[in-house]
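#structure-requests
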Amino acid sequence: MPLPSVVDDFITLLFPRQCLGCSGVLARGEAFICTDCRAQLPYTDYHRLPEAENPLARRFWGKVPVQHALSYLRFLRRGRVQHLLHQLKYQNQPEVGRVLGHWYGHELAQHTSLSADLDLIVPVPLHPRKLAKRGYNQSDSFAEGLAESLQRPWQAEALRRVEHTSSQTRKNRMQRWENVAEVFEVVNPAEVTGKHVLVVDDVLTTGATLEACALVVLAAGARTVSIATIACADR
């Protein structure tokens, strides 16, 4: 057995690596999320449906024209997805977003036209104060993972949040929309002009944040816009 493998096995024996989904011990070859968790994650498979039959796309009908409305997982309270997102957002584990982005990107490359048609991936930005407090934007890591799998560029600073908003957690749809309306801007319109832009976030609830971002991207001259999230909550 090569020396690095022996050393890695010894370190793992002393300090077992835990799955960020279930806290179980990871086996050799597993990274951050164990095989059992991956098999039991609640996948939406919305990317396999025609857009007319996609329940996520319907949330944006009559509000903003999106070419693809995509979400990898269903958000279930007290489930694996909620635990993974908590690790991603509050436990300094941006690798969760990157891994899920890689997995989803491979799915999208196989079952959609995104890898051929997409020009740019843009994460929903955090306000600078929240970014400074957390140290990273959880949507950036998801965007990075998607970009690597789809082999398309991503730009972390294409969008800017110009106002600090209060938490969306306890707001209804109208309150969420009022909370995010007119708080985003495209930093350099030339980066999105004439392009198909994929706007990504961690969780979609009412869709108000993604709707606001999509509208400013289109207003800046994008040819078309799609949205994708790690997870979506049922309404």
